[in-house]
Structures are given as C-alpha cells and as structure tokens.
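At this stage, I wrote out one protein's amino acid sequence and its backbone structure tokens, and that material follows here:
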Amino acid sequence: VMLASGKPVLVPTIEEDGFALDIEAVKKAVTPRTKAIMYCSPNNPTGTVFTEEQLRGIAEIALEHDLVVITDEAYEYFTFDGHKHFSIASIPEMGKNAVSCFTFTKTYAMTGWRIGYLCAHQDLIPQINKAHIPLSICAPVVSQYAALAALKGSQDCVSRFRQKYLSARNLMCERLDDLSSVFDYKKPGGSYLMFPRILLEEGKDSKTFCENLLKEAKVSATPGVDFGPTGQRHLRLSFCVPDEMINKAFDRMEVYFKKYL
C-alpha cells in the first residue's frame, strides 16, 4: 500500500469471536480518501474463515462507496469443521469492484516457485500491470510450466493436503492445551496457521518473546506484532509440517516454560 503512495488503515478483528471481521469498525474507518479494502480469508495469521454474511457486509460497504476490494484467498481449499470459503467476487454486483488473488504455493505445495494469479474486471488489469511489471516482470518460465502441470494433473493431492493439515491442526491444539497457562488460542477454521495469545507477562513484547524462544528452546515462531500493533501478545504458529516436528517443538517448549510455571 505504501509503495503505491497509499496509507494503510488497520481495522482489528474481534478476537473474542474467533478473530471475526468487525463490520461496524470497517464502516467507521471509511473516509472520502478511502480507495480499497483488503483482507485475507482463510486468514493469515489467525486461520479464521470469514463468513459469507460478513463478506456480504464488506461488499455492501464497497458498493456504497465505490471501493475496490482486494482479497488474498491463498488458502481457499483448506477449511475445516464445516467452515466454507466464500469469494466476494462471486457476488454479481462486485464484478467491477473485486480483485481476487490466488497462489499455487499453498494449494499445490509449490513454495518457492513464485507463481500465482488474480481475477479482476478487464478494465482493472492494465492498471494492475503498471505495478506488476516493474516489480516482478513475470513468473519464471519453469514455474509457469509447473503450474500448468498442477492444474491439468490429478487434484487428489489437494484433498490429501487438507486432511494432513486438519490432523496437524488437531495435534497442535492438543499440545497447546497442555500449555494452557502459557497460551490461549482460537481453533483455526482454515489455512495451516494459528495465532495463540501469550498469557505470560513476557508476551507483552512478542518479538523478544519469539527471539528468546528461538535462542533458548530452539523453536521458531513469528512474533504477532509483525502483523500489526494488535498482534502484540501473540505469536503465529504453522502446522504445515510433519507431526514429528510439531511434537518436537512442543516437547522443547514444555521444558522451556517450566521455569515460568
């Protein structure tokens, strides 16, 4: 946003409601200078899947003020517990107001191949290209062929990934339950990420907390403050790893946090 000479205005989600969208807060944040609304669902870092009702509320705001809605839908196929991914671009009235961004990185485990795509009205594409060309020119040719192979090949892998992430999420939640005096969490309904709250006093500085966790317990996590000021007192955990790695990390954390308990 700042690279495009814009000013980002952050609107916190409602943590008590599983990091749900705060539609009223979004309405209040809109001014005559507002150009767009951006969100990610299933969400990074919280794993929240915004509901169709919430996203229709965002669409109403966008249409009322003629705003573009830019979405990150990278985890669209990874939802759990009956949660359903809803794309705001599927609302007919949003045809000229939605820019939906997707990636092969998550769906096909193609991390590092640096390739994705977006859907938008044809009038917006030339404007998007003005930013895209000087920043990245194009995706590597080998990645384009790999993406074609992923699209044309069997899609069974996507279902397998989803089941793996669901199992890994459940394992991580079980291990977090054993550290209930250190962390509180909202069970993610999608993606392969979660955003536990740090209950210890040391958690007030999430960056230092995560640095100490890395240095002393040899466990890597992302400080919540990296996702905005209301992310303080949180850390992001990823469960797109083998169960053995999750268990090893939590075994180390259980030993590390004994000094606080």
User: Anything to note?
Assistant: The mean pLDDT is 96. Residues 156-177 form the longest helix (22 residues). The first strand starts at residue 36 and ends at 40.
